[in-house]
Amino acid sequence: QYGIVRPKGYNVTFHTNPEMEKHHFGQTHPMKPWRLTLSKSLIMSYGMPFAMDNYISRAATFEELNTFHADDYLDYLGTVLPEPVPRDVESANPDLRFNLGGSDCPLFEGLYDYCSMSAGGSLDAARKICNREADIAISWGGGLHHAKKSEASGFCYINDIVLAILQLLRCYPRVLYIDIDVHHGDGVEEAFFSTDRVMTCSFHKHDPINFFPGTGALEDNGPKNEFNAGAHHAINVPLNDGITDEQYAYLFDSVIGKIVETFRPSAIALQCGADSLAGDRLGRFNLQVQGHGQCVEYCKKLGLPMILFGGGGYTPRNVARAWSWETAIALQCQEKIDPIIPAHAPWRDHFRQEELLPTLEQIVGEPRQNKNPQKRMNEIIQHVHEQLRFVQH
Ligand code: ZL4
Ligand code: CA
Ligand code: ZN
Question: Which of 23, 98, 108, 340 is the most exposed, fewest CB within 10 Å of its CB?
Answer without folding.
Answer: 340
